[in-house]
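Kindly go through the following sequence and its backbone structure tokens. Advise at your convenience whether the structure tokens fit the sequence:

___
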Amino acid sequence: MSMKAEGRLSVEHSQQGDKNAWLASHEAGYHQNLSKRHVQMIALGGAIGTGLFLGAGARLQIAGPSLAIVYLVCGLFAFLILRALGELVMHRPTSGSFVSYSREFMGEKASYVAGWMYFLNWAMAGIVDITAVALYMQYWDAFASVPQWVSALVALAIVTVMNLIGVKWFGEMEFWFALIKVAALTLFLVVGSIILGGGIAVGGHPTGLHLITENGGFFPHGMLAALVLVQGVVFAYAGIELIGVAAGECQDAKAVLPKAINSVIWRIAIFYVGAVILLVCLLPWTAYKAGESPFVTFFAALGIPWIGSVMNMVVLTAALSSLNSGLYSTGRVLRALAMGGSAPTFMSRMSAQSVPYAGILVTVAIYIVGVVLNYLVPSRVFEIVLNISSLGVISTWGFIVVCQMKFRHAVARGEAQAVSYRMPGAPVTSWLTLLFLAGVLGMMAFDYPNGTMTVAALPVVALLLVAGWLLLRRPKAVMMTPTMPSVTLTRKFLE
């Protein structure tokens, strides 16, 4: 090798080292206090939330048994996205997750868009969760007269405290929240299977597959009714990417995360697809309704009143868990944005407990808007913000896949080390996943009026992002691109 070539390689290695050091500086201050059991339950709990416990009731009413097929297809792509994220985590665990990966492989502008679209997702999802809590509380007569916004405010106060006391406490609470959700679904699957296998009637209806065939089959309202539900089902899986954020505070992330991710796919098959098929074989799908968990409907039909209350408590826990996870993830993502100059600098502040409290409190301020919406339009909140949240989910997952593809390109150029844990079938599956996400966005346009209005709002979202970038950018700030010398980047970002 010539001296010139050796010199060029030496400079490239030096630049890559400086770049890695600059990226690593964004992670300073976090404690690796999440254990193996915490991460496993965070991965599982992220895939089981209010989209199944509350949203399934309304969606069964719209699409009937075909909801199981939609859950299966979306679940497969959700797993592929998790594998893409897992490949990136094996490359470099970070609490900044896809925000940090976007910065590394696509530049600061991409990082800015990825982070703020993710914030949009959880800001809206948190309002959904607050609304879910308020609806669940009204199931009991003792709380039926309590205004919906009061329950929402109490829920917000509880999860805010949870997130400010430290990541270890967050992990412990998420562990028990997820365990309760899994135990409840397991109970339903066991009880439902026994009733179905024994041919026991539920609510005066004989159980069995005939409940599907006698009520319009798998597609009682046609194929289009199932297709337009896809964005709602995508929201049901929103939260699976939380495991990537948790990686930065996980003990031995590279050993723990692959096992946690690989376990998600069969759990999706059992808890989502299996549960929906059981539900429509135990009661006619027309028995389920919006605003009430289908699991509560089923247990109430058994004629044992207290079981319905217990199940309602479980789904209340699920909503609190999701709300808690939203505050956790947005706090870390907003800090990652601030460390890169893509958010106000005060959002990078950490507490003595190594909690990014400033970002968390910003999210809390947005959630207070949800409390106000519960006061003004309590009956419409869920569907309005659900569609807006879907935009953030689609964007986040898209950035994860693109970053995975960029990482593969960096490996091919010799700029990054290959990892053994890889997205199966890539790059074909990477392109198929991006095509699926684009298709979801297209189908949203046919979901009139909420979906149509949401897609129509995309130019407004784009303009807000541009305005935010121009507002945040200062004369000394530069956009980070992978081709710029990292020594220069480091110096300019630290000025």
Remarks:
- Residues 3-15, 476-495 have pLDDT under 50 and may be disordered.
- The chain is about 70% helix and 0% strand.
- The CA atoms of residues 146 and 364 lie 22 Å apart.
